Amino acid sequence: MKSISIIGLGWIGQPLGILLQEKGFQVLGSTTSAEKQFKLNQKGLEALRFSLNPHPEGVGFNKLFQSEILVVNIPPRTRSGNGLFHREQLKYLRALIDQSSIQKVVFVSSTGIYPEMVSEEEYGEDFPITLENTGNDILLKAEKMMDAERKFDLTVIRFGGLMGEERIPGKYFSGKENVAGHTRVNFIHQNDAVRIIAWIIEKGLWNQTFNGVAPIHPLRREIYEKNASELGIAPPASYQNEPEGKDRLIDSSKILSTGFEFEYPDPLEFDYKHG
Q: Which of 86, 92, 187, 248 has the CB geometry, 3.0–4.6 Å to 161, for a possible disulfide?
């Protein structure tokens, strides 16, 4: 039975831990407080207290680094600034990994790493990203830091906008004026994000990069209006008067080529918990 540690039993990590346990993996995860630890233990997930502030803090957390596989999901706290705190977090994390018996790492990144420019072609994993063209240099530096001079297998997953459960796109723009409704989305449902991580581990898809984005890209306006009518939230009060045209779209054909099937390929069909 393979052992897996998950750094961060949060919105993605918690359902991932439950799914991997159902698949027969031995799962250990981290959380930042005793209260969350108690709740996770009640759900049948073994959790240790561990945080990177940016240096490692916690109780008995070295056990996290005795597994065969490690899942790292520590998004930067900010999209702006120099990202120094995040870099320091990952520096300490890399030191812990390098001193451990961990053989394989799944590193969760974001499609925000791709240029912000609209493009005729969808952005694929092999697009050459540089500090000059990246949409988020904090993410780019994070990926490079995880990849540098490593002895472990590493797969990077770049997720699009994570939706599902209480994360409802229309809720964020309810009643707002001058909303951008004319561009198409790069969303992924929580269930599929969790399933992609498990799929990569099960299929042994190591030393690769994958985009995690639903393959259908509806217009933002279509999604906001559907959320409003189905969930009883007010739609945006007005939209920007912009023509529909080129978009910044992310290609999901690589993960599909491995045989993965999306449970929610169309963001118009995402389900949510609302109330």
A: 187
Residue with tokens 């004319």: 182
Interval 38-54 mean pLDDT: 95
236: tokens are 């945006």
pLDDT > 70 fraction of the chain, expressed in percent and rounded: 98
Residues 6+ apart with CB under 8 A from 42: none
Mean pLDDT of 127-149: 96
Q: What is the distance between the alpha carbons of residues 61 and 65, in angstroms, rounded to a whole number?
A: 8
CA distance 60 to 63: 6
Which pLDDT band holds residue 226 (cuts at 50, 70, 90)?
very high
Residues 186 and 217: beta-carbon distance below 8 Å: yes
Please provide the distance, in angstroms rounded to a whole number, between the alpha carbons at the two ends of the chain. 40
Q: Are 96 and 65 in contact (CB under 8 A)?
A: yes
Q: Residues near 148 by Cβ (< 8 Å), separated by ≥ 6?
A: none
Report if pTM > 0.90: yes
Most distant CA pair in the chain, distance: 56
Contact 47, 40 (CB under 8 A): yes
Pairing of strands 56-58, 46-52: antiparallel
Give kind and range of the element (H or E) at residue 190: helix 190-203
Beta bridge partners of 163: 189
Mean pLDDT within 163-183? 96
Facing residues of 51 across strands?
57
Whether 62 and 93 have beta carbons less than 8 Å apart is answered as no
pLDDT at residue 214 in the model: 98
Per-residue pLDDT averaged across 68-86, rounded? Answer: 84
Coil, helix or strand at residue 93:
helix
Q: How far is CA 51 from the centre of its chain?
A: 18
Amino acid making up residue 34: A
Query: CA 65, CA 142: separation in Å to the nearest integer?
Result: 20
